[in-house]
Amino acid sequence: MTAALTKIYIPRDTTACSLGADRVAAVIQRHIEKNHLPLEIVRNGSRGLYWLEPMLELETEQGRVACGPITPDQVDEFMAAASWRNIDKHPLYLGLTEDIDYLKRQQRLTFARVGVIAPTCLEDYCQHGGFAGLRTALAMKPQAIVSCITDSGLRGRGGAAFPTGIKWQTVLDTASAQKYIVCNADEGDSGTYSDRMIMESDPFSLLEGMIIAALAVGADRGYIYLREEYPLAEEVLNRAIEVAYANGYLGGAIAGSKFSFDLELRLGAGAYICGEETSMLESLEGKRGEVRSKPPLPAISGLFGQPTVVNNVISLATVPIILARGAEHYQRYGAGRCRGTLPFQLAGNIKYAGLVELAFGYSLRDLLEDFGGGTRSGRPMRAVQVGGPLGAYLPESQWDTALDYEAFIEIDAVLGHGGVVAFDDTVDMSEQARFSMEFCAIESCGKCTPCRIGSVRGVELIDKICAGKAPAQNSILLEDLCYTMANASLCAMGGMTPIPVRSALEHFAEDFEVATGPASRPSPQA
Amino acid sequence: MGLASNSPLEHEKLVEGIIKELQDLPGALLPILHRLQDELGFIPPALLPVIATGLNLSRAEVHGVVSFYHYFRSSPPGRNTIQICRAESCQAMGSRALEAHAQRALRCKFNQTSADGEFTLLAVYCLGNCACSPAVRVGDEIYGHVDAAKFDSLVAALSTSEVEVK
Q1: Which of A49, A46, A40 is nearest to A21 (CA)?
Q2: Cβ-defined contact of B30 to A228 (cutoff 8 Å)
Q3: Which residue, A146, A369, A472, B130, has fewest beta-carbon neighbours within 10 Å?
Q4: ipTM of this predicted complex?
């Protein structure tokens, strides 16, 4: 008697595991073995509904249904009561996964397969539309592939929002016997985890995007530069690369064509600055991650001095769907000059933290309220930092801003990589401004004086202002320092550190005054 | 961390083997340093000349790289390495209090090792676990929603000797 096994999905993703998903899986496995249950565990990635993790899914005739959060303490009882047999009666039953409101209201293009498939199962990937983009690309001329990306309107999702097609065009047009594709997977911005999710939950989409990029520009070698802080992503990516080699998607004669492409994963070593593309190239070359002057652009003289496409994980993982469905399809999403979707990441003090892929154009408030549901602490939300540690702190008066690169620039803010970190009313914004300078001092590569020394002076000045030492004069000095850093640093590290500092000073000036400083603010315990 | 013995001669043999295996990679220095730290838990300064010779670099260049990256360390860590995220998302959920608690509980500061050699405490800037801040990493395990109580039970579970945790 070999009755068909019912699939039970348990995410294997850093955040799900940080909440006990591995222990949940181990307990369920024990029950299956002990009681010969007709269940088969599939370790999928996470759907990104993180407040529901560990979220179990069960395959039913109606489709996949979800139940969660099932913590390690609850799982024994869940299995002992055979809850999976009548899962719709369970108090934590969530219904059909696809119908969960948070997921249903999203426009998942880049993240279509994330949480659905088993990450390194090639068959699963192909059954869900994987390699359709590559098949299309293999039948196209390089210029046609580049034009497709240009026409889609895709802009660099790492944060700089430079048109991907134009970058590729430059590499295609630069003659060289050796060209490279480099994936920037040094996702160091606090509040961001979308790169990690792609790498852990749908790594083949990144590989496929890199292969298509290589076809487009004539490269035969690629590197993924992954941060050391992502051990699970490292394991999953290495496995995916191994599977791709074994199945003819990497190496010589890719998918039966004449084209070859070799790919290697390299690890960073805890330097935030290596997310800056030229610093990352230095690091890949085995050097200190010091920023290079531009020009020359990496597209002309990049890794080892050769023409190099440097793209973020999300940009590359979006390439396959653009090729598969056409530039026009992707272009239809979005608003103004921002075409397509951006995976936003809700983080910090937020009730429903998770990944929200949306077309550009929604307002920040929609995201915070409709998806985020307010703060996790239940206190009023006071400030939101969008776009990582170099992004502005936004007060409530700015939350109606459209989630659009240009709209954010207009209010001296950045959308960046789509990270959204919420703070409640216990936040002391002078501490946040001080930390921005401190972080710059810790992570500066040291090449430019305004960044290396200015950040240290910035911490000192903020300390003086908050201690009431000549606050008026020191505020003028601080603004002068911000001006120098913003205008005399080679890269965004020194150049953008003033953004959070200035936004805190401008919108939350009361936190820098001694009399109404932190002491009069509600304490976190209150 | 591997089980390589601590004798300088063994270390030298180890690094020579690693160099031989990896030196033909383009930009081989970081992969070599990673492998060495995976094996030994740190990069012994005495090995820098060996690496420099192997890769035809100056000793200063190798030292410059080792000292540039926060991850590479020049002295052995404690039996467990605990990283606490200090970045904004975790700050929004109370990581400043957690940092202070951890330093009190382990009686050591960031970048130091507790007196019993059990724990090395490190700061980290984002573990990508921002949906469940504050985040802590021990080895390759990442923990979410870590408060003082959860930190203490984590430390208690990792301790081999009897540590009094307040």
Answers
A1: A46
A2: no
A3: A472
A4: 0.95
